[in-house]
Structures are given as C-alpha cells and as structure tokens.
Design goal:
heterodimer, A: 423 residues, 12 helices, 14 strands, disordered N terminus, B: 6% helix
C-alpha cells in the first residue's frame, strides 16, 4: 500500500528526466493505470488510516498604488505559492507517517464576508490559518475565532503592535516584525561603523511605522540620527513616458541641505519613492532602509545553508523566485508539518501547544534551528541585509551577544515586551 | 600481466611503508573535493603536501573510490552527473548518469551498483557503474542527502534533509521498507562495521541518532555541549567510526571541532579544534590519521588519532567539502 502511494506521488513530483527515466516513468504510469482499482482502494483507506490536516490560506485583497518599478508588481500567486510548497514538503514526509495536509484558499477585501468565510471553515474543522492581511484584519479574525480550536499564522503584517500591546494568544508570526528588520540593518551599519545617518520618510502610515522602528534601532545600536525629512509625493501616472529628467534634479536638491552623513536611510513601505534615492543623492552616500541596502527575511538569490534545492523547488512550482511573503507562508505550513511529524498527531490543540514548547524546532534554510518566542509567538530568525541582486550580510552580526540566543538581539526582547497574552 | 605488475608495486609499497613506519605515517593519498573551485586536491598523507590539483566538473561534493581504488567517483552537483577519473593517472575516464543535483553516494560492497542521492528530485538513483545505466529510481523524502550501504549489502540507507528521516531501502527490491524519524536536517549516515548499528547526524537538530538496524528504531541520541560555543553553532555532519567500532569521530560544522566519542557508551570524550565549518572527515587506512575538510577556512586539518589532536593544516582549494583516502 505504502509503495503504491509512493509511486503515485513520484509521477507528479518529477521534473527533468533522462530518457531512461522517461521509459521507467511511462512503464510506471501504464502500470498505475492498470492498478487504478487498487489506487481508489488506497484513497478510500485514507479516510480510515490517514490523518488529514487541513490548512486555510487567507488573503485580504488591498488596494495599493502601483510600485515605481515594473519589477515590483505583486505576483498573482504571492504567498499562496509558499504555502503550496510547504504542503508538498509536508506531504512527502506525511506519506511515510500516514498524515495528509490539504490547502484551501479564501480571498476577499476588508469589510466583506472574508471573516465570516474563515469562521465557517474553522467551525467545520480547519485548525490552521495562514494569513496575509493588514493588522486590522489580523486582529478582527483573531477575535472572531478566539473560542475555537484554531491558530492564525501572520505571514504578511510586520506591524510591531501585533507582537506587543495587541498580541493575541491565537496568533503566531512567521513574518518578521519591523523592529527585527530595522535591528538587523542597524547592527550591520554599526558593524561597518557607519554611525552618522539621516532619514527620509514617506507620508503614509506604514512609512511612519517603519521610520519609528528605524529610530528605535538607531538608538539601540548607538547610531546617530543627524537629520530627518519627509518626502511628500503626489501619486501620478507611473507609466508616464520619461520622468527621470525631473527626478534626477529633484533628489539632489531635496538632499542638499541634510547634515553630512555616512548613510541616508529611506522609509518607504508603500514603494512610491525609495527607489529614486540610490545614485541620485547630493553627496555620494549609500542608501539603506526600505530601499538600497535593505533587511529582508528571504532573498531570492540566497543559496546559503543548502537553500539551492529549496529555491529550485519553489521556482518549479511558482514559475518565479521566492519572496519574503512566500517564505513566511512556507514557514507557517512547515511549522504545522513539523509539529504533526514530531507530535504524531493532527489535532490542532496538540500541535499549537507543541509549537510553543521547548521541543519545537524548524529547519528553514537559515543555518540554525528556528523557534517561536514564548512571550509573543514571533518566530526568531536570522535576517539578510541585502541589495536587490544578492545578500550583503546576515544579521545578527558577530559581536552582538545575548544570554539566551543571539537571535533575540533582533526585535523586542522578553524583558521589554508589552505582550501579556502568553503569560 | 597488469595484476602481476600491480602486486609487485604493492610489494614495493609495503616494503617502502615498512621503512617509513617509524616516521609516523604511511604514504596514502587523500582526495579532497573543493566545492567552489571545481577542483580536487590530492594530498600525499606522508609529506602532507598537495601533489596534484585536478580540474573537474561544477560543484564537486560527494567523493569516493571504486574498483579497488583505481576509480575516483565525484558528484559534480551543478553538472547533474557523476564523473569518473583514474585515481592513479588523474585522467578523466567517463561520466555516469544520475538525476539532478547528486550530492552523496555509496557503493554496494560487491563493487557495483552505486546508490546516489539526488538532492533536487527526492529520488535515490541506482546506477550500474560498468554499463553507465540507471537501474532503478527509488522515491524518498525531500532533499535526499546521506547514503550508506550496509556491510552485507542488504540495505541502503538514505537520509532526507527536509523530511528528517532515514529511509531503509531493500537492495534486492529497491523499495523502502522502513522510514525512521530523526532530528532536523539529517546529513550523514554511517553503519558500524558489524552492520548492527547505524549512526545518523542531524545538522540543525544538533544530534547523532543511533539506530538499531534489526529493530529499526532509534536507541540513543548523542548531544554535544562545548563551553563558550553557542548551541546553534554545533552542527554535526560527517561521521567516521573506526574498524573495531570502539571510537567515533564527528565533524561539528561551524563549531570548528571534531567530537571524539566512545562508540560503546556514546560518551563524548573530547573536542578537537580544527579549521572553520568542518563538514566531512576520513581516516587513513591504518587509522592513524584523520583528514577533515574545513569549508570556510579553505584547508584540511590532519588529526593524530592516538594523541587526539590536530597537528597540521594543509591549504587546499576554496570550500573543501568531501574527502576520501586511497590505500595506494
């Protein structure tokens, strides 16, 4: 029976083939057609012997302005592709352990029946939700399912408050928080001894949140913020022909009156102007923050720590390179899979407890085991400091020490936390 | 005629080794795969000097000898194939097929076939090294890595890095018959010479699982603790157990140390400091020396087994990965 399952899996999992393998595969396909009666028996047996663990991927559709660069448009399968890869990885293990993971997707805008749809699924037995949504929707959904045996994995919102004052016992975070990201960048700048910085931030609330997080990190790592400016912009037609002539003059004059500095930081979460700054500033200085040298949980070019095959698997599945949202969704699904493997169970309650226990550890192509912080359920992880083409470094930087784990030098630490939901 | 010639040669070698026996070590050759350089460094284990640098295919990792040490097999991962070289003349012989991204392999004790972990394809390929054909493909877990054939040739074990299992494959049927869960990111599998136990290292889990082959269950887990080294940096990978199964040596990755383990009590006796990010290691055939591959410091550390300490670093190519030592 197990072999039959293996065979069916194999047919769909193969990529490139040698001619010999093609012949073999053809033989197997023919063989499995002959055995189709047996296969349906196997599937029926699934209902009895195999634990089915359903996972729901939820996406809040948000209106955003188009990004500056054609390269930065959101992929159609953003996030969900990472969850799909996680399901495929889980099921390869699951077929040896009689566990089967399934994925369903729910999409909708805020204010419609998105939350009602999710609640209905949870009531029907789905215990795991991977969520890409704004902080408001994360909190609303958390409230809606708080008495049900289910947990949310926040894969999309970096907002600090979700890990602090607004933390919730039924929300885990595989997305890094803003403070984790900006601490990772600040550590690298401190290591480089680029201590004098200036900050240009955008007018949107998310820009301001990122800027606030940067200010905290600069202070924490002894960097000097010598000046700040807000960059106001009027959203225009991105596709207007030309534009560089004006930008080329606008950015130098905008940065001319800033005090001398080692690095110019930009906070542009909305992706509306940050890309204008590198190579256009009044003084020849590196740009860092949301653009230029930026901190990120995943880099599409990383081959560190055996990530090559992981990147290849994703590329084959999604038809594009992996982004941080895909990675966060993959980590969520793999956390569920890893817990199910180790705890030998598909029961949501058992797995949720296991994930917060000392026994839980996730291998996620970051060169060390990843765990959830017990005080706010944020996953700890090394963070890339990168340019769009390749990583420059990985934080925590050498020399920043911690009595528990150096990963806790990134983000709000236990003694400082305002989160009380896990006490 | 050729074999007579070889016997004469080996007689001469034995005679020569008797002469130099007092001078600590015999002259073997260590072959080191340099992952980033696409080269193999050949080291004379007596003079401890690199005597040859072979240009090979892209990203050489797994490396072993076949045909009584006359063939050198190399997994050239980025070329998706196994390259075969003459281990004596260093000349290219042929290419063996494999699936995509071969990383590690092991040979049946009879000398054929070869079992290859195809890391990008969740498949173990079984390859006839004489005919150069794929005999079978066995589906296993995600990112197959470590390979070990039992001393009696009955079982081949594969570890899968993301599925976190040791898959037991029957070499007669080429089907998996047991899947044993170990800790996170299993890398290397190694049988004791009596075939009773299987040691499996878990890089991220930071442990060695000892599996009872007959019972097919984990009977013990070895953990490591080094004062002043963060637990996250202790990442066991390469394992070598001596022929009488009394001592095991385990490479601990970025902890930059080799653990010396009593293979009967599983107690860690000592940590030997070596170069940076040590992945793999090999004994000389007389078990007097161990050579370790230190990825980030681009060198090989030579350990005196009796004294249990390193006494020489040999610069090789960039990111040395695997090592095998020839009797000849």
């Amino acid at each position: 029976m197990g072999n039959l399952l293996s065979t069916t899996f194999r047919i769909f999992s193969r990529g490139r083939r040698t001619p010999v393998a093609t012949v073999l595969a053809t033989a197997i396909i023919v063989g499995s057609m002959l055995l189709s009666a047996r296969i349906s028996e196997t599937l029926a047996a699934d209902d009895k012997g195999v634990a089915v663990i359903p996972i729901l991927y939820v996406e809040e559709i948000r209106e955003t302005l188009p990004p500056l660069s054609l390269l930065d448009f959101r992929a159609k399968n953003a996030g969900i592709a990472g969850a799909q890869l996680g399901i495929s990885d889980n099921n390869t293990t699951g077929r040896f352990l009689k566990q089967k993971f399934t994925l369903e997707q729910v999409k909708g805008a805020k204010g419609d029946d998105l939350i009602a749809k999710v609640v209905a699924k949870v009531k029907a037995g789905t215990g795991f939700i991977v969520l890409d949504a704004s902080a408001e929707v994360v909190l609303a959904l958390s409230e809606a399912i708080k008495d049900l045996p289910a947990v949310i994995f926040n894969a999309g919102a970096a907002d600090q408050r979700l890990r602090e004052a607004d933390c919730r016992a039924n929300v885990k975070h595989t997305a890094a928080s803003h403070t984790m990201l900006t601490d990772a960048l600040a550590q690298y700048l401190a290591w480089k001894q680029w201590r004098k910085v200036v900050l240009v931030s955008g007018p949107k609330p998310e820009d301001k949140r990122y800027a606030a997080s940067l200010r905290r990190s600069l202070k924490r790592y002894g960097l000097k913020l010598l000046g700040e400016k807000e960059f106001e912009y009027k959203p225009g037609s991105r596709r207007a022909d030309g534009g560089f002539e004006q930008v080329q003059k606008q950015i130098p004059s905008f940065t001319q009156d800033l005090p001398d500095h080692d690095v110019l930081l930009v906070a542009d979460e909305a992706n509306q102007f940050g890309e204008y700054f590198p190579n256009r500033t009044w003084k020849p200085r590196p740009v860092a923050g949301t653009h230029g040298l930026y901190p990120t949980t995943w880099h599409p070019a990383s081959e560190l720590w055996g990530a090559t095959q992981f990147q290849n698997r994703f590329q084959r599945l999604a038809g594009r390179t992996m982004e941080p949202l895909d990675y966060a969704a993959w980590m969520a699904v793999r956390s569920i899979g890893e817990s199910a493997t180790r705890a030998g169970s598909g029961d949501p309650k058992t797995l949720i407890d296991y994930m917060l226990s000392d026994n839980f550890e996730l291998a996620a192509f970051k060169g060390q085991k990843l765990t959830y912080r017990p005080w706010n359920a944020q996953i700890r992880q090394p963070i890339f400091v990168a340019t769009p083409k390749i990583h420059v470094s990985v934080s925590p930087q050498q020399g920043f020490l911690h009595r528990v784990t150096v990963l806790d030098t990134l983000g709000i630490d236990k003694p400082e936390t305002k989160c009380t939901a896990f006490k | 005629m050729k074999s007579v010639f070889r016997s004469v040669l080996s007689l001469i070698a034995i005679a020569a080794s008797l002469v130099v026996a007092s001078a600590n070590a015999q002259a073997y050759r260590a072959f080191v795969s340099n992952e980033k350089d696409n080269t193999i460094s050949v080291i004379d284990t007596k003079t401890l000097k690199v005597i040859k640098t072979m240009k090979v295919g892209q990203r050489p990792r797994g490396i072993m000898l076949a045909k009584d040490g006359d063939w050198l097999l190399i997994c050239t991962s980025d070329d998706n194939r196994i390259e075969v070289y003459d281990a004596n003349t260093y000349e290219f012989i042929k290419i063996l097929p494999s699936g995509p991204d071969p990383e590690l392999f092991d040979l049946h004790p009879s000398g054929n076939p070869l079992y290859i972990a195809n890391e990008d394809d969740n498949i173990v390929a079984v390859v006839d090294i004489d005919k150069g054909t794929i005999l079978a493909e066995v589906p296993v877990g995600v990112e197959p890595e470590g390979m070990a054939v039992s001393p009696d040739g009955g079982i081949v074990v594969n570890t899968s890095e993301t599925t976190n299992m040791a898959h037991f494959i029957d070499t007669k049927t080429n089907e998996t018959f047991a899947n044993i869960l170990v800790d996170n990111r299993p890398r290397v599998a190694q049988f004791t010479t009596d075939g009773k136990l299987l040691w499996v290292s878990a890089e991220i889990g930071g442990t060695i699982s000892i599996i009872d082959v007959e019972k097919k269950e984990v009977i013990h887990k070895i953990t490591f603790e080094i004062p002043g080294i963060n637990a996250d940096a202790i990442q066991p990978v390469g394992i070598r157990i001596n022929k009488d199964n009394t001592k095991a040596f385990v490479a601990l990755g970025p902890a930059n140390r080799i653990a010396v383990i009593d293979a009967k009590t599983y107690k860690v006796e000592k940590y030997i400091l070596v170069g940076q990010r040590v992945w793999n290691l090999a004994f000389t055939p007389d078990e007097k020396l161990i050579f370790t591959t230190n990825g980030t410091s681009n060198d090989v550390t030579v350990i005196d087994v009796k004294k249990q300490r390193g006494y020489k670093s040999i610069p090789v190519g960039r990111y040395p990965w695997g090592v095998v030592i020839s009797e000849k």
